[in-house]
């Protein structure tokens, strides 16, 4: 099942939904993958400096990990192809116009945008403007 590559179709058909919970970005030096698995990250990325984990805020607190900001995850509920061009840029630009940071993670089926928790509803409203633009 391949995803959609047409940017207009992606923007018109996405239904952004706020995922339950609040998330933080942490880094761990350990390459102890059993520890990482126990932390149940919703995303991870191995960088030269350490492993970045996106964790539920409560799990990060319980394990004493530091973090800078708290985020809500917005799932763009359209099956975007990893080969699609422009979706990340369109979303980031739309949110930037509203003063909202966009930390985007592309997964196999969907893109996920992490925004400041207190701006999540504003972010969803901004993303829904893509529907208004096409309907007009």
Automatic annotation (TrEMBL):
List the InterPro entries hit by this protein, alphabetically.
ACT-like_dom_sf (IPR045865), CASTOR_ACT_dom (IPR027795), DUF2241 (IPR018717)
The record's annotation in Pfam families points to:
ACT_3, ACT_7
Domain CASTOR ACT intervals: 74-129
Which superkingdom, per the lineage?
Bacteria
Task: Cite the DUF2241 domain residue spans from the record.
Answer: 2-72
First and last residue of the signal peptide: none
| Protein name in the entry | ACT domain-containing protein
In its UniProt entry, the species of origin is given as Photobacterium chitinilyticum
């Amino acid at each position: 099942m391949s995803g959609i590559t047409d940017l207009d179709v992606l923007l018109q058909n996405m239904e952004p939904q706020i995922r339950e919970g609040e998330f933080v970005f942490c880094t761990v030096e350990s390459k102890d993958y059993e520890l990482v698995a126990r932390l149940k990250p919703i995303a991870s990325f191995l960088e030269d400096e350490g492993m970045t984990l996106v964790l539920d805020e409560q799990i990060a607190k319980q394990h004493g990990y530091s973090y800078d900001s708290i985020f809500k995850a917005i799932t763009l509920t359209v099956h975007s192809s990893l080969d699609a061009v422009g979706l990340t840029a369109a979303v980031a630009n739309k949110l930037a116009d509203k003063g909202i940071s966009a930390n985007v993670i592309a997964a196999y089926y969907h893109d996920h945008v992490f925004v400041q928790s207190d701006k999540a509803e504003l972010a969803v409203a901004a993303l829904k403007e893509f529907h208004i633009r096409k309907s007009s």
